[in-house]
Amino acid sequence: MSVRVAVIGAGAAGLCAVRHLASRPSTFSVQAFEQSPGVGGTWVYTEKTGTDIYGLPIHSSMYKNLKTNLPKEVMAFPDFPFDKQLPSFIKHQDVLQYLEKYATHFNLLQHIKFETQVIKVQPIHCPKEQSPTGQDQKWEVTSAPVLDSKKSVTEEYDAVIVCNGHYAVPLIPKVPGLETFSGEIIHSHTYRAPEDFKNQTVLCLGAAASGQDISIDLSSEAKMVYLCHNKSLIQSPLPPNVQQKPGIQSVSGSTVTLNNGEEISADCLLFCTGYHFRFPFLTESCHLHIEEERLTPLYKHLIHTEFPTLSFIGICKTICPFPQFHVQILLVLAALDGSFQLPSKEEMDADTEADYQKRLSEGLPKRHAHTMGNRQWAYNDEIARLAGCELIQKSVKNLYDAVHETRVKNLVGYKRVNYEMVNECSYSEAC
C-alpha cells in the first residue's frame, strides 16, 4: 500500500519534493497543486503588482535587475547542477529556466495540477492499521480551479508536504505616523525597477540582503537613497548617492524622523523588512501556531510534532536554500516510509524548545526562531544523517562562507567574480 502524498506548491521546494516522491512509485504516489500556470514559485518574474490574472495576490518578489546573491555553484540541488556556461551570479530568468529544466528532466509535470488552488487542509482520524504511515490520521485536501472556485474537489491523502514559500506576504512594522506619509509607501515585494524612482529621494528601511541589493539597484536612477537600519554600519563602499542612516522613529507628512533625531524629507518609503508566514488553507484543527514569525510545533523546523505526516519545507531563513530543501525532503520521506523512527512527541517538542531557548540566550529576538546563518551547516548535516542520505558537500559551505566575506567588503562588485568547484571540499576562482 503506497503512501499518498499531497504537495502544496511547485516552486523549488515543491519540485524537489515531487522529484523524490515520484522516484519511488512503489512507496509513494504524489499529487502536487500549483495555483499559477507554471513551475518556479517566487522565481517567476512579473511586472505586475497587487493581484494576478486570477485576482489572487501576486506571489513573486522578483525585481527586473535581480541577480542571485549566491553563486550558482552552491545554489544547485545536489543531483542537478546549473549550466556551467552561466556566470556564477545569475539572473532570476536563469534560475527559473533551471527549475523548468529540473521539472522536465525528472518528468515532474505529470504530477502537478496547475492553476489549482488548495482551499482547505484538515486532519481526519483513521485507525493506524489502515494507514500506510502507521499514524492515526489522514488528510482531507480540498482544491479548486483558480478560474472557478465553485468546482472544488476534496480528496484524501496519507501525508501533506507544504511548500508554499514565505516571500509573498509583506511584513511592514508599525511606525508612528506612517499613515500620514505624503509620499509613496511600498514593500520590497512590489519593487520592480529603479526607473520608477527616477530623481526621487527614497528611504529604504532594512539592510538585510534585499535592502542592500535594492538600494544599490535604486542608486542608478534615484537622486538619493537612504539605507536605514539599526545594525552595525556596512563596511563596504557604497554608491555616492547611497547613505546609511539609523532606523525610523516616526513619520509626519513627508518628513521622516530617525532614531538619532535627524529629520529627512523623502518621496518614497521602501520597506525591506521581511515577510509573514501564511498558510490560509490550514484549518484550526491542524494546530499550527504562528507567534512573532515562529511556527510551532515543528521538529527540526520541519515536521509537525502532533501530526507527523504534515511537514513544511523551506521555513528556515538566511540559508543556501536548494541543497537544504533536498535534505529536508529526504528526512520527511524517511519518516513517512519508516526508515527513520521519529522520537516521541514529548522528545521532539523538548528538542524544539531547547533550540529556541538557545537562540534567545544568544540574544536573538523571538522572530529569529527559524533564522539559520552559520547554524545551517550543522543543521543540514544533522538532517542528512537522520535521513540516511549523503551530506551536502563541504565545498558548498566553504564557497558560501567565502562569498559572504567578499560581499561584506565589496557589495557593489562581489557578483563580478566567477567560481568553480574543484572537489568535494574546495573551490577556486574561475577565469
Low-confidence stretches: none
Could you give the count of β-strands?
Answer: 22
Q: Specify the CATH homologous superfamily of the largest domain.
A: FAD/NAD(P)-binding domain
Number of domains: 2
Classify the helix fraction into a percent range.
10-25%
How would you characterize the overall build of this protein?
By secondary structure, the protein is an alpha/beta fold. The chain folds into 2 domains: 3-168 and 275-394, FAD/NAD(P)-binding domain, CATH 3.50.50.60; 178-271, FAD/NAD(P)-binding domain (3-Layer(bba) Sandwich). 24% of the residues lie in helices and 22% in strands. It has 8 helices and 22 strands. The chain has helices at residues 12-22, 72-75, 92-105, 209-218, 321-337, 345-361, 375-387, 394-409; strands at 3-8, 28-33, 112-113, 116-125, 137-145, 153-157, 159-162, 184-187, 201-205, 224-228, 242-245, 248-252, 255-258, 263-265, 268-271, 289-291, 294-296, 298-299, 303-304, 310-312, 419-421, 427-429. The chain has a 5-stranded parallel sheet, covered by helices on one side. Strands 8-15-9-10-11 form a 5-stranded parallel sheet, covered by helices on one side. Helix 5 (321-337) runs parallel beside helix 7 (375-387). The chain is globular. Keywords: FAD, Flavoprotein, Monooxygenase, NADP, Oxidoreductase. This is Flavin-containing monooxygenase. Its cofactor is FAD. InterPro entries: FAD/NAD-bd_sf, Flavin_mOase, Flavin_mOase-like, FMO-like.
